[in-house]
């Protein structure tokens, strides 16, 4: 009987953690209330920054990353600041659709730069211009559904019709 209670308790905990997502943080659907007050600002800082280089020149990007002391992530994607409203719209019916989990996919493709570097050194190995549909995690902050995470679209998935 004691083993059965332990088994039921363990199973209940596993189910509960499973509903919280892999990291224990992610919502299971887009546009649910966020548990992270600064996630949208963090997303914008990481992906929609003003004054990023508009070139694929590796030296320009290495200089930029060094100046910003931003060498901790080996792959970073940067969207043009003029696209900010379009990026935010991915989390609404006007610009995106539900993809899976708490992810939405843009209805139209975006052009952005993907920078690959050596972690900690800022040595840039490649800068590639890409045009793909964005896949973004979307959560509600201050009564607005906004992007909080950029998910790579490795397969080049297009918006669901």
From TrEMBL:
Gene3D superfamilies: Ribonuclease A-like domain. The keyword Signal applies. Residues 1-24 form the signal peptide. Residues 36-154 form the Ribonuclease A-domain domain. Keywords: Signal. This is Ribonuclease A-domain domain-containing protein. It comes from Oncorhynchus tshawytscha.
């Amino acid at each position: 009987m004691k083993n059965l209670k332990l088994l039921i308790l363990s199973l209940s905990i596993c189910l509960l953690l499973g509903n919280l997502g892999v990291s224990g943080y992610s919502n299971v659907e887009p546009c649910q209330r966020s548990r992270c007050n600064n996630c949208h600002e963090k997303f914008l800082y990481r992906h929609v920054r003003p004054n990023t280089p508009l070139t694929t020149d590796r030296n320009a990007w290495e200089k930029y990353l060094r100046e910003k002391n931003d060498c901790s992530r080996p792959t970073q994607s940067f969207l043009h600041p003029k696209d900010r409203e379009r990026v935010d719209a991915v989390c609404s019916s006007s610009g995106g659709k539900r993809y899976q989990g708490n992810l939405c996919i843009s209805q139209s493709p975006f052009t952005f730069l993907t920078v690959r570097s050596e972690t900690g050194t800022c040595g840039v190995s490649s800068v590639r211009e890409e045009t793909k549909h964005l896949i973004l995690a979307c959560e509600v902050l201050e009564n607005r559904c906004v992007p909080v995470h950029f998910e790579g679209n490795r397969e080049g998935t297009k918006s669901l019709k």
